Structures are given as structure tokens and as C-alpha cells.
């Protein structure tokens, strides 16, 4: 690790940290290339112009060391980040090629503590911390407890140690372990559930069922651990979007995620979905159908949550607090649906690239 060269604001004010919303959606910032249909219906200055690979820049700045691809949701863009893992131990999601070149690795505790000391020198009053890596919750109870204790010892005002997590990983923790981690301020889990429909989950290779999603999220709630859910439109394929969205709404209405975000399936080279499309065994959903899917979600979600469909993969960016902004979001989506330029939106999606 490099020594801290100077006391700078953290993250550096000039650092664009082009992180993307859900690590798994892996796209560059296409803000300037969104088609006019999307721009005219955009929900104000969307913070989707954010996330990406932070490692190089942070290393340039001489702050905390990053060895792998670093992702975090746009709403965490001002949260101090620290590397806890790199790569993804699962690596089998059919739409994802993000960590193909990286092996999953847990950052040794010693290095984690050194990074924490440096971070403390810059932001001693940090109340929130984002652990990087495809899925740091994979590291298991002992590793996570050690790191949470290290954070507690150094950053005494810490309230939330947030990270990506998967439904698969929550199953590995006992109720007692979840409760213990919750007491140690582990929370703010961002879960890329993608769908709560068995067929769609199997198609995506997520490694869990619809029932697992609801059971494991309820366990988090009982443990007092806050979490957010991410849904992926278009994942079920042509003609199946609305039914999948309805099934998802039915299931998640029993849950209380703090935040409900959406991404949209984008076929990246090298993914299993790309092969399926080439072989003709998977037909992608149209952009109009994806909007219908979003409408189904916004109409159906009955709990109070922040709904955010502003990641670059959402051709029509909308966001707002449900239920208060429901009508406004639906009006935007209805307008986009009526005036849709399918070719322009499809071209926009084709231009999306991994960073
Ligand atoms: S869990 Fe799936 S989507 Fe997320 S990084 Fe791993 S392979 Fe990609």
C-alpha cells in the first residue's frame, strides 16, 4: 500500500469515480448518448452518471489501495470505500462477464486494517462505509465479523458498513450470526435479486429460487439488517416481462427493502446470454416491453420505498419515493411508451459497453 501523501477530501473532489449502479449491470456512462425519447422523459439530474472502476484513480491519488474492479451503487458515491474482496466467487450469472478475469479473493485482514487507518486519517467521522468487491458478503461470518470489529475500533461514529450481497450468501449465515453482524453495524446490503420468478432466476443462473428471495430477506429483517433490492427488466425474455414483474411485485410486497432499483438486461459480448441470442434460443424483450415491465412494478409496489430506475441500462430513467411519486413516475413512463422510438432505444442499448 502506498503511504497517504496528503490529507485530501475523501473521495477526492476531482475524482469522477465512474461507478455504476449495480456492479452486475456493468455499463459505462452513456448520459450523453441516451436517445432523445429518454432524455425528454428523464427524471432530473440523475446520479446514474457515476460509478465504475475506481481502482486506478484512487491509486493515483495515493489513498486506499484497490487491486480489482471496484463497483458501488450510485447512491453510495459519496460513501468512503475500502477493498474487502475482489472478484466474484459465483461468476455464473448468465448476463455477467464482469469478473471473468479476476479470481475471488478476500483482502487479508492486515491490509484491510492498514487501509482503515489511512481512511481514518482522512475521514475520522465517517458514518457509512462501502466494502468493495463483487460480493463481499460471500466472505463468511468470521471474516466479516473481524472486519466489522476493526471498523468499530477505528471509526467510532460508524453507523453502516454496506456492501453487495446475494441471496445465496445470506443462506450461509445463521440467525445468530446475522444478528451479531447487525449489532456490529453491518447493513445497507444491496441485493441483485434480479427477479422473484423461478423460471427467470434459473435462466439467469442466479443459484437460488423465488422462495429463497423472500425467506432470506425476511431473515435480514428479523435480524434488523437494512437492505435494498435490484430487479432486472428484460431478463425473462420476449413476451414474459409483465408476468414476471407481477410475480415479483406479489412477492416483494411482503418485504420492506429500503430501496428498490432496476437495471435492464443488456447483452454483453462473452456472456451466456450472447451465445443464446446467437443460437436463437433466447429472444430479447423489446424496449416497449421493458417499459411495460417497469409500469407493472411501479403500479404494484405497495410499500414505502425509493424506486430508482436510473442506471445506464434503463433507457427511460425514472425515480421517486413510492407511493408519493407514483403518479409522476407512471406519467413519465406512459409518455415514453406512447412516443417510443424503438429503433433509437435499441441503438442506445447496443452502444452500452462495459468499462
Ligand atoms: S453475483 Fe452474478 S452478477 Fe454479481 S458479480 Fe457475480 S456473476 Fe456477476
Automatic annotation (TrEMBL):
<dbReference type="InterPro" id="IPR023404">
    <property type="entry name" value="rSAM_horseshoe"/>
</dbReference>
<keyword id="KW-0408">Iron</keyword>
<dbReference type="GO" id="GO:0051536">
    <property type="term" value="F:iron-sulfur cluster binding"/>
</dbReference>
<dbReference type="GO" id="GO:0003824">
    <property type="term" value="F:catalytic activity"/>
</dbReference>
<dbReference type="InterPro" id="IPR051198">
    <property type="entry name" value="BchE-like"/>
</dbReference>
<keyword id="KW-0479">Metal-binding</keyword>
<keyword id="KW-0949">S-adenosyl-L-methionine</keyword>
<dbReference type="InterPro" id="IPR007197">
    <property type="entry name" value="rSAM"/>
</dbReference>
<keyword id="KW-0411">Iron-sulfur</keyword>
<dbReference type="GO" id="GO:0046872">
    <property type="term" value="F:metal ion binding"/>
</dbReference>
<dbReference type="Pfam" id="PF04055">
    <property type="entry name" value="Radical_SAM"/>
</dbReference>
<protein>
    <submittedName>
        <fullName>Radical SAM protein</fullName>
    </submittedName>
</protein>
<dbReference type="InterPro" id="IPR058240">
    <property type="entry name" value="rSAM_sf"/>
</dbReference>
<dbReference type="InterPro" id="IPR006638">
    <property type="entry name" value="Elp3/MiaA/NifB-like_rSAM"/>
</dbReference>
<feature type="domain" description="Radical SAM core">
    <location>
        <begin position="74"/>
        <end position="304"/>
    </location>
</feature>
